[in-house]
Amino acid sequence: MLCLPISSADGKAKPFLDALFTATTSTCVTGLVVMPTVSSWSIFGQVVILILIQIGGLGVITIMSGLMIILHKKMGIGDRLLLQDAFNLNSLSGLVRFVKKVVTGTLIIEGIGALLYMTVFIPQFGAKGIWISVFTSVSAFCNAGIDIIAENSLCDYALNPVINMVTCSLIILGGIGYIVWWDVLRVLKNARTKKVRFFKDLTLHSKIAITATFILIFVGAAFIFAFEYNNPQTMGDYTLLQKAEVSLFQSVTTRTAGFATVPQENLTNASAIVCLLLMFIGGSPVGTAGGIKTVTFAVIIAAAIASIRNKEDTELFGRRLTKQVVSKAMAVTCMSFIIIFTSTVLLSAVTDANVLDIVYETVSATATVGLTRNFTSSLGSVGKLIIIIAMYLGRVGPISLAVAFKRSKDNQNIVRNPTEEISVG
What pLDDT tens digit does each residue of the chain (425 aa) get? Predict the structure, then answer.
């Protein structure tokens, strides 16, 4: 569809590889683009891109399940198992209701976000501001980072409090995960009828996701604030509060959102390295964000601490984690690292760009972030294919691996090989 002349702003068909790249970055809610979305695509093309972003954000399985519910088609046990794996749920009960809540909640939040954006974009762009607001809201909530405002992303709005607040809120709400949504609402609902201790009454998953999210956001913002404080190319000339605002946005957007209020190529090397770690970790499970996920990262850290302390069990918030969970976290992390390493080596072989720019690009693609150090547009045909594959594997690979681990537990060999000690570390 993006290859059609009607999709192009100038009425001329775009090259197939560029259309494929755009379709991939939209469906994988990454945000890396080889050509500016605002000036390269017509309204028709932008609508196609927005639909792909919405499908990618909610998930193909969720969309198909939602259509089955709308058409009043009964979901079989196979469909329910697929949906259970997609949302990483522990039970088959209440899956249809869960899908309804996910779709309804998504549309409500995106609608509120669009209305808030309109307070800025309608006065600036007129009636066109309505479309820009809707597109930006969906893109922000789905952590896509694609916009139709300007060729420099949101750099013109770096100090706009409304744009900063709304965008950060949508990114966090989309990336925190649907499971956390309903758990928080459950606790708040119970608070009406009985005395509850908010954080303590949350599930372990929600505690880990919320704690890890806010620690990473504020610690990341603190590092960026310190490293960019005197950088004239980013925020060296801003006031103290403006620097804090820009630093916080940069920390949030690296959680796989992809919007930029400062040119990424102007960041100091120290800030860029911090951003690489934040991009690699990403958002939380069962949400619209990418990366290895906050809960995965927390489990890896907890397992390392348990090993250092010579403890047999991995624990978080006073609860013991199963060995299966720890193994799954390690598998997802290792697979993501392998994809990044391979992509970096291959991209380095076909381009002579700065290695930091290449690593930033491959991590951004694999973690489905969308931030670039002004490198994507310079990619050749082979480089585009490498990034396309990285985006696809980054969005699908770790999830598929986790599903495979979950299903394999019933097919374990009865006969086990003998053990033998080895030296590690």
Answer: 999 999 999 999 999 999 999 999 999 999 999 999 999 999 999 999 999 999 888 876 666 666 665 655 665 656 565 555 555 555 555 567 777 888 888 999 999 999 999 999 999 999 999 999 999 999 999 999 999 999 999 999 999 999 999 999 999 999 998 889 888 888 888 877 777 778 888 999 999 999 999 999 999 999 999 999 999 999 999 999 999 999 999 999 998 888 999 999 999 999 999 999 999 999 988 788 889 999 999 999 999 999 999 998 999 998 999 998 999 899 889 989 999 999 999 999 999 899 999 999 999 999 999 999 999 999 999 999 999 999 998 887 655 555 555 554 555 556 777 877 777 66
The answer to pTM > 0.85 is yes
Domain ranges of the chain: 5-407
Query: Three-state SS across the chain?
Result: CCCCHHHECCCCCCCHHHHHHHHHHHHCCCCCCCCCHHHHECHHHHHHHHHHHHHHHHCHHHHHHHHHHHCCCCCCHHHHHHHHHHHCCCCCCCHHHHHHHHHHHHHHHHHHHHHHHHHHHHHHHCCHHHHHHHHHHHHHHCCCCCCCCCCCCCHHHCCCHHHHHHHHHHHHHHHHCHHHHHHHHHHHHHHHHCCCCCCCCCCHHHHHHHHHHHHHHHHHHHHHHHHHCCCCCCCCCCCHHHHHHHHHHHHHHCCCCCCCCCCHHHCCHHHHHHHHHHHHHCCCCCCCCCCCCHHHHHHHHHHHHHHHCCCCCEEECCEEECHHHHHHHHHHHHHHHHHHHHHHHHHHHHCCCCHHHHHHHHHHHHCCCCCCCCCHHHCCHHHHHHHHHHHHHHHHHHHHHHHHHHHHHHHCCCCCCCCCCCCCC
